[in-house]
Batch of 3 targets.
Target 1
Amino acid sequence: MPFWLLFAVFLYCGLCESEESDLGYGLNIGNAIDVFANYGDLSQVTQVVSADYEEDNPPHVEPFREKNIRVFLNASSRQSSGDTMVDMNILLCDTFDDLLATYFQNFRIEGTDKPWKAFLGDWILDEIMRAFGIEYDTKPDNCCYVLVKLTKVHKSVQMDDLRNVALKDYVKRAIESLNVSDPTDLRKFMKSYGTHYIDSYVTGNFIYQASTVFKYKRTGYNLLRAYIRQRNMRHSSSDNLRFYFSSYFLKQVGEIKIASGNKTVETWAKQNLRDSQYLYSRPSLLRLHYNPILAFKLNDLLGNGALLGLGLKTLRPLFKDQHKAKMFAEIVENDMKLWEVNV
């Protein structure tokens, strides 16, 4: 075989090996993913909501399992550790869409205002409501909602700026040969090298009701909203939350769920976080608000099995040619809008 042909084969094999070694399935800051590969069901490859598994606690459930590729040669990031204790939030939602948007408020995908659709857009309503621990309702927007979350952050990672960041050689070559006037060629590039890169992420765990979800009668919801607003304004130590979460106001109390899907913790919560009022006894995360001992026990149980936040930015910075950058960004954002409407 001629020397030049041997050299070409060696070069090709080296390129393949380099690209293969740059492929991953975990949380790799700066790596690129194709959002459309699992759009509408990104929850299949990320641990963001409680899920039903065949086993109670299946092994090797990672917060992020989507295929990604290294496109930057020397990207750097900064990392910070989370709080040592859980943090409780009570979040008010006027509609079911608000509930979904609030749940995914720490998820940002450049090109869309509704990142939750990328994760749950393909789910039927019954599946979504079950994941939130509430009973199926054919008209969910006839009610208002309150989401109670107890969050424990393990770590937060943020990518540094891209001013001095270089590209991998095979990405450079792909961009140079890319015909941005051809949508088919652009979409082939997106499938090979992605649409967005991972700019930030947060891992940890949180419990919600199951984070806590309560489904409200409108009058009770308005009273609770007014109370929480006044409580936050005056920073009062007095606390009548339990009264506003009583059966007098509630239409339905959701089940307690955990984002990592850990059924052992869910079972512990259902057994230990019961609130008795009048003739009723039901699980309630508010028990943790009034019982520090239970809060400490839960804190020890929460691990690092869930994705709490994710920031995805388009691969526009890869393109030094501003025309190519604009054409690439336009087709990604247009496709995002189409997928958002159609899921």
Note: The chain has a mean pLDDT of 86.
Target 2
Amino acid sequence: MLSKEKLDRINFLARKSKKEGLNEAEKIEQKNLRQEYLKKFKESFRKQLENIEIVD
């Protein structure tokens, strides 16, 4: 899971992007944070799927 600080930064950049726009450095940071978030999410989701046991 991503740290609270990184999640807060993702949310801050998203709000700022909607309100006033981002500069180039912030756009790159936002892209990198989103990629890291998606990677962690996919890993976590895959682990959950692997632990599912189907009972008939």
Note: Helices lie at 4-19, 24-50.
Target 3
Amino acid sequence: MTIRPRSPKDKDACVEALAQVQAADRYPVDWPNDPWGWLSPADLRSAWVAIEAGVVLGHVGLTRDTEIVRLFVTPAARGQGLAAQLLSSVRTAAGEPLRLDVSSEGTAAISLYERCGWRRVGSSRADWINAAGEPALVHHYVSP
């Protein structure tokens, strides 16, 4: 398995991986009209993929204001520490403290971040709706 910067050639494989995650976890809660656009927000600085045999197993993005976005690992690749490796790759590349937001519904993600030393610094209600149909409760974290 290799973690490397994402390229435009990864588009279809990234969208396929995201579809697997969305089917398993409802992340994102609603399937975007433009999944590649969702994976490439306007403020995206860089993105990385975890690849094995040409298949995208994981993805993470970093915005210009040092926020981790669009982190996911496909269901088949979970339990191998891949999300932690993706986070570590971004931290190394960025060379500065990072932040991220996670829905309170993402209990596995919250556990991962806290195991990796991320610190919760607050919570707020989001402007998007969670799986229960209410404004999501989002926890805010900073990197160790």
Note: The chain has a mean pLDDT of 96.
